[in-house]
Amino acid sequence: MIQDTTAIHTGALSREIPVAAGIGLRACHYRDFQNGKPPTAWVEAHSENLFAAGGLPHRVMHQVRSHYPVSLHGVGLSLGSADPLNKEHLQQLQQVISRYEPGLISEHLCWVSSEGRYLHDLLPIPYTEGMLQHVSDRIDQVQNVLQRQILIENVSAYLHFADDQMAEWAFLNALVERTGCGLLLDINNLYVNSRNLGINSDEYLANLKADAVQEIHLAGFSIETALGQEVFIDTHSQAVWPEVWTLYRRALQIIGRPIPTLIEWDTNIPPLGILLEEAQKAQHFLEGIHA
């Protein structure tokens, strides 16, 4: 647990995330940020990487926050789980928020734990009225503790639930209405689901509450073969595919405004320069919709 929860001194640096392209902070790029100030508008870190009492992640994050607005992206709240909310996890998140003053805080629409055991995956939930009430109650609890709005991200999935009662976009819209949360739209996940599950991405984007979308994620997927069929896997292991860039452009057009956009790359991570090049591509799209 973090012992020193004193917020860092950022001077006049705003915590607000600019409407521009940013990159995810990964350990292999720590030295780049220690040795200089890479040209990115903002930086996103995984919340759980900062739960330890100290060490290199905090030394780097302190320096990063001194130069950039940051957002925190969580993977462990397990909003869809039947387990009670993990109070220790929530307390640690609250301490990290106090320390680094992030502009945005986000979590996934999924479950990752059962009976106190945590899994290394973001598992989908059924879109039912019962689950909607369950997740809404948990988001309310989280926002009441943090005294901050959180963004909820759509996840990739590889199956439909037979009991689904509504589309994912309708479920997300209802969460916004019931809790006042915001949305983090992952374009790569939407594309993966459109290929694997036949989701109509145009219908999805046209019906999603555009004014609730406060952040967008872009990443690269992989293609595997299972039972003689292609399966699109959300691996974050390569550059953003052309099809995802196309869907990103369409999303910006449908939403009607530029949105802070993050490049994610979690496996087979390249040198920082390649990540920055991907961010520049996203910046080009943002400036185009701005114009």
TrEMBL record:
Instruction: Please report the name of this protein according to its UniProt entry.
Output: UPF0276 protein A6M23_03835
Q: Which NCBIfam families match?
A: PRK05409.1
In terms of HAMAP family, this protein maps to: UPF0276
Indicate the family of this protein: Belongs to the UPF0276 family.
Q: Which Pfam families match?
A: MbnB_TglH_ChrH (PF05114)
Superkingdom as given in the UniProt entry: Bacteria
Q: Which SUPFAM superfamilies match?
A: Xylose isomerase-like
Q: Could you say which residues form the signal peptide?
A: none
